[in-house]
Design a protein that fits this description.
9-stranded mixed β-sheet, 27% strand, 300 residues, 9 helices, 4-stranded mixed β-sheet, UDP-N-acetylmuramoyl-L-alanine:D-glutamate ligase, alpha/beta
Amino acid sequence: MPTVLCVGHAVQDFVFYVPALPDRGEKYRANRFESVGGGPAATAAVAIARLGGRAVLAARVGDDAAAAMIRSELLTHGVDCGNLRRCPGCSSSASAVIVDARGERMIVNHLDPALPADPSWLPAPESVGAAAVLADTRWPEGALAALQAGRDAGLPAVLDADRPIPADGELLRAATHVAFSADALADYTGIADPARGLERAASGLTGWCGVTVGRDGVLAQSGGELHHYPGFDVPVVDTLGAGDVWHGAFALALAEGRAEAAAVRFASAAAALKVQRKGGRSGAPTRAELDSFLAARCVA
């Protein structure tokens, strides 16, 4: 059971399901509601645990009731919360998430700017037995420290490169593997075309660099060459958390010693299973489900 150290954002999501996303300022009625945990690093940690890995989450939460909700749910999924740090006088992160009938989503998040940025308390990867490190961009100081520590230890150091990405590129250079969302890549490079944007982003990096492009799969730059890894054609019910599940599965696959191409297929299959189910992290697949999905498609 390899361990992945996940560093970044833990949040409480208040999810409203509606027929169509709001397009103007008026009152809307949801046909379903749930309160669940979210956040890129935290949801990736849940995905890792459900896929049979050991997930150690290092994240900042407030000194409030939401912090207890966040921790309690993560524990039910088997995530190690020994490094979930409560910050006195601060609010835990919270999001309003609106999901339409097609599974598309709109998210409004509040991240308390008073949460301490200092990452000096983060555990060293070797102290938790990590075989890989995964960080999101919501806490840049923590991500930078974790990625540098992972890289220095000779481990895969994966950056979930979603918005916002600091423009100086320091986070990207600290990672051994950078995995952009399509929107974040366009924002970062100013180039709408994913292939051209990826070429621009990867030009200053020494490691693996990729971008997830939904149904079209993943584009990756490695060794100066562009590779396309097709996605899985499945019916989409809910995309909430799919990117986080992808990143968690990708980091776990690297921790297990898989090559990048195999890790991409593993992660894309995990995300394909997730989007067929309602709910964010609750839709993350188990290892048995993922193995069965891949076996049915003759993918090792």
